[in-house]
Design goal:
The chain has 75 residues and is an alpha+beta fold. It has a three-stranded antiparallel beta sheet with strand order 1-2-3. A hairpin with a 2-residue loop joins strand 1 and strand 2. Keywords: Electron transport, Endoplasmic reticulum, Heme, Iron, Membrane, Metal-binding, Transmembrane, Transmembrane helix, Transport.
Length: 75
């Protein structure tokens, strides 16, 4: 599934910062990872700590696999 080209401000993304509404930014794209929280191999705390902000550095620092990168498109 691909995004629809919508543009969000950081302020808009930062409003989505709860376990029931969890957005984050990776490489200038916004992802709604709410449904992925319970399935994240590192636990939901990892995603929740990056919720509502730019999580690019966090994502890259962990060294995610190509498979993990491909999964982003779902969100």
């Amino acid at each position: 599934m691909r995004g629809d080209g919508k543009v969000f401000t950081l302020a808009q993304v930062s409003e989505h910062n709860t376990p029931k509404d969890c957005w984050l930014i990776i490489n200038d794209k916004v992802y709604d990872v709410t449904k992925y929280l319970k399935d994240h191999p590192g636990g939901d705390e990892v995603l929740l700590s990056a919720t509502g902000k730019d999580a690019t550095d966090d994502f890259e620092d962990v060294g995610h696999s190509d498979s993990a990168r491909d999964m982003l498109e779902q969100y």
